[in-house]
User: Fold these one by one.
Assistant:
Number 1:
Amino acid sequence: MSEYPSWQYNEMKQIGKDYGSLAEVEAYDARHGKFRNVEKENNDILESLRVEAGHVIIEFGPGTGAFVRQASRRCAHVYAVDVSQTMLEYAKKKAAEAGITNITYCHGGFLTYAHTAEPVDAIVTNTAFHHLPDFWKGIALQRMNGMLKTGGQFYLSDVIFEQKNVRPNIEQFMAKLERAAGPDIRKDVEAHIRQEYSTYDWILDGLLERAGFQIVSKTMHEGVLGRYLCRKTADCAGGAGL
Ligand SMILES: C[S@@+](CC[C@H](N)C(=O)[O-])C[C@H]1O[C@@H](n2cnc3c(N)ncnc32)[C@H](O)[C@@H]1O
């Protein structure tokens, strides 16, 4: 029997934005810097996780690596796991320039990364989970549960929808981003909603709980951005993935 079933989702295939493209990767930080304060975002994540010097963290979908660099200064080791080799190379170069040596870069993803070291203290993913359709989000959560220590924390931030007022919320969100970053960002958000797999918060609530996570805090912003801090309370009853 092969390692994965023939119906395994191909997470290596880029959907929506092509993060395998060097031009896309090189433009990423400048584009996101127009509407995000990434350093503050990352500090807030690290604060909410109460990261300690001895902790080990995995980030799924680190992109250009801003979070893993900030995290690496506050903990023992970080694993940066991304399906885009181009993103990984870019992030690795930036960390080397900053003299950072405690990050391991892994080409893989939510569904394929095999964590062979000890279970970790925290797993973080920011603006990446929407790359998986909902069934596969469930499998990914089971897998991540298996990589965490009992009591370990899972932080999820992404475009996530509240069901109420979804259309006006999305329109307001796009208008706000367009004011901050110009008309191209509107096209990006439209493509995200059309082609990628951002889902409802109530679906994520259920997926998280069924994968053995307790939702410690959940905040929804303007009906379209969700942040979850979760704790692994149990091994997932359905096992660690497929
Ligand atoms: C929008 S970027 C987010 C980057 C960064 N976390 C941030 O907050 O700016 C999404 C990243 O997730 C990666 N990605 C897409 N699908 C993935 C998967 N199945 N597993 C891990 N990473 C994935 C992409 O290659 C890309 O680097």
Number 2:
Amino acid sequence: MFFHHRMKLLDKIGREFSGYNILESGKRLIDRKPLQCSLYVTDRCNLDCAYCTEYDNSRPHPSLDDLKKWIRKIRELGTMRIALVGGEPLVHPNIVELVRYCRELGFATSLTTNGFLLTRKLLAELEDAGLQVMQISVDRMTPSPITKKSFRTILPKLDYFRDSKISLHITGVICADTLPESRAVLETGLSRGIPTEVRLVHADPLHRFRVDRGPREELERFIDSMIERKRRGEKIHTSEAILNYQRSLLRGERVEWTCMAGYKLFFVSAQGKFWICSMVHTDKHIMDVTLNDLYANYRKKSCQEGCGVYCAVSASLLVEKPVRVLGKEIVARTKRIPSMFRRSLAPDADKTTHSAITNPDGTHKMNGGTNGSPSADDRVTLRKGV
Ligand SMILES: C[S@@+](CC[C@H](N)C(=O)[O-])C[C@H]1O[C@@H](n2cnc3c(N)ncnc32)[C@H](O)[C@@H]1O
Ligand code: SF4
Ligand code: SF4
């Protein structure tokens, strides 16, 4: 019994430090190859979030053969991590096979989903295929006309993860519609031991905000409170650097950084096109991209000011200042270890993590491009039909 608890505790401590995959990622901090790629496995989506420009139901799913060809090419470029995104990845009929294929090729593999189509069986199949990380997007406690992604749908599914090897993260979007519930979203995730993040809504490729962003001062207070909690070691699922970055965005302060999108990280569209990031698209096909094309994107971009592609900012800051970014993250995660020991001494406390389906207040009620060398400063296209 004691041995079992000790192993579980060691496993948990190991997981705390596995997110960054430090040794593997370390190689990409010093060589010229890409660290990560986000692959749109489909443009189609079963929802219609008002802030989103990343779905298009007029387009068919890409075929399994095409996707596999692109995935092989992404790996040949030396990419280590692949994030399966969309549209909604779970609407692709071959999603399990795609995950299996990514793992066979040696990718660290994650999937971002709205979770609506997630079932216990599908999660088990994805786990069996080797999926390591699942990010479920949850914006509110209850659905609204702006976004249906709420804990009303997701809370009953958290139990599926109780014995799963897949690491679950929760991510929400903060805008005027969601802000009154964003704290509750954060508490609900954190109180169940799930790394959780809520982040500011970003503009579309034409720099337009599709929804009201919310009152600046309130947003700033909220970001400040997350910085505080992150420093205390709580499982806020983003780095302090990104929280500071968001605060600077709100204050209109200039941030000094070099965007590594198109180089250390890049996107591949559901038509196989090479995209610098989710906002800056090119017409070049992924099959024609070379390491030199990628390296050409190692430069400051004219679209950096106000950039809301947080995964790109995050990877860029990591590559630029690895010691500072990783150091703070390691310190924050180390602060969690004493509470893990406390929990391991009270083993029953563990069971509440993913299983207690209650609100934070303790109640059970839920209401509710371009041709040629791809470049970030080239033509920006807004996807048709969006
Ligand atoms: C485009 S979605 C695709 C995956 C899946 N359909 C989902 O919603 O999780 C990927 C992530 O981008 C977020 N997102 C979409 N539009 C956004 C925006 N304008 N600002 C901030 N985040 C956004 C979503 O909430 C989600 O977490
Ligand atoms: S954010 Fe995700 S769920 Fe919402 S419309 Fe976009 S792709 Fe669909
Ligand atoms: S700075 Fe431009 S190219 Fe870089 S991530 Fe932001 S929008 Fe994309």
